[in-house]
Amino acid sequence: MVTVLFHSTIFGPIHSRRLGVSLGINLSPNDGKVCSFDCVYCEAGYNSQGAGTTGLPRRDLVAAELEQMLVYMNVKSKPLDVITFSGNGEPTLHPDFAGIIDDTIALRDRYFPNVKISVLSNSTRLDDEKVVVTLRKVDNNILKLDSAIDETMRLIDQPASPSFTCEKVIEQIAQFSGQCVVQTMFLRGEHDGKKIDNTTPQEVEALIKAYQRISPRQVMIYSIDRKTPEQQLEKVSHEELEAIASQIRVKGINVMVS
Question: What is the pTM of this model?
Fold first, then answer.
């Protein structure tokens, strides 16, 4: 069974295929998962493994651990491109998310002023104005949109909220326009006996219409790279991703394939 990836609040730096040398911040428990999605491809496993025992990291401890690492990297002249909020769940669920972002910006400005701050979010908290305001502060506001068709989105992402719909989330992402990056995972396979495939012409056409409506700074498309909790999934080849990217680019949208 796939379980949580990160057993600390600050992790890395690691080389991100999309962002470069990345120092990670995990705002979920170190021994469990807290997320508003339960994605079939999540590298941190399914939510059924539980939230663990350590709880969400306190704001002051996040800042202290981050500063300790940034001081060390600064003294050792270690390279760093980005500080990335990801980890074992959805970072915007942390009750002190706004304050932690403010602390991170201040520490970044003090020790690595040229480094970007990224947040990888599943887009489920965009109905919270405080979350929206906070995401506008970061350099890379990276928002998930795996399908623009409800049935497919529910198969892939398995949102906790029954009221979460593609129409609603596309409208919410669109409020950021050029202040966001949209990230889409392409995959095929099965889950609970149901076929999953967001690479079909219908799916790609719906996504392109959503991207046009959102008008993001960039679209990132990718496929499975590590072990997934659902074993009946197929990685989409780089060549096929490039073919999908070509269809998006002709609409004037900037696309990164990784």
Answer: 0.95
